[in-house]
Design brief:
It is a single chain. The protein is mainly α. It has two domains: 30 residues; 62 residues, Orthogonal Bundle (Trp Operon Repressor, Chain A). The protein has six helices and no strands. Helix 4 packs across helix 5. The longest helix has 18 residues.
């Protein structure tokens, strides 16, 4: 799939291929622990939890408080959920979350 964004280049496609090759949570944990800092993994984890809570209709302030993130970050996650590239929605659909 071709996108007009700096993230669409052969080296980035190589990263996506590596992620897709992972077979289970343990392999993913090992890969992302080597690739990312604890803080980066925590931020991604919290954003994903925010997506799930937004999908359930949890108020942004409650999400921010529970996840210890700023309400601005929660609003940004919600914006990307509703106006982004569709990745969050695709994952929600594939995981049958609602």
């Amino acid at each position: 799939m071709q996108h007009s964004h700096k993230l669409s280049q052969p080296k980035t496609d190589d990263l996506w291929q590596a992620v897709r090759s992972l077979k289970n949570n343990r392999q993913a944990w090992k890969f992302f622990r080597d690739l990312c800092t604890i803080e980066e993994i925590t931020a991604m984890t919290d954003r994903w939890q925010a997506v799930k809570m937004i999908q359930k209709g949890v108020p942004y302030r409650d999400i921010a408080k529970k996840l210890k993130m700023s309400s601005t970050t929660v609003a940004r996650v919600a914006w990307w959920l509703n106006h982004g590239a569709g990745g969050y929605k695709l994952a929600v659909k594939k995981l049958k979350l609602k």
